[in-house]
């Protein structure tokens, strides 16, 4: 068996060992983080259905206006540069 054939499995084993060590050594920190995250999400003031609908409409209108604005200037500049190149 050639030494170069052992490098791949050795590296894979080392990576697996490092990942397992990292997961098990930080498990307590991970659990604490998840508990704190859950507690913070409980403090969030979530919008009701009407507010969420209104905000969604505002976002969609803003995106549409922005797209039309950018599309208009894109078309204008495309036409101008096409005239300059000819």
Mean pLDDT: 88
Compute the number of strand runs. Answer: 0
Give me the oligomer status: single chain
Helicity, in percent?
over 70%
Characterize the overall form.
Answer: flat
Tell me about the largest β-sheet: none
* Count of all domains: 2
Q: Based on helices, strands and strand pairing, what is the structural class?
A: mainly alpha
Low-confidence stretches: none
Radius of gyration: 28 Å
Order of helices and strands: HHH
The first-to-last residue Cα distance is 68 Å
**Strand-residue fraction?**
under 5%
The number of helical segments is 3
Task: Break the fold down into its secondary structure elements and pairings.
Blueprint: H1 4-25, H2 27-43, H3 49-85
Describe the structure.
The protein has 86 residues and is mainly alpha-helical. It has two domains: 44 residues; 39 residues. Helices cover 88% and strands 0% of the residues. The chain is built from three helices and no strands. The mean pLDDT is 88.
Give the key terms.
2 domains; flat; 86 residues; mainly alpha; 3 helices; single chain
Concise summary:
The protein is mainly α and 86 residues long. It is 88% helix and 0% strand.
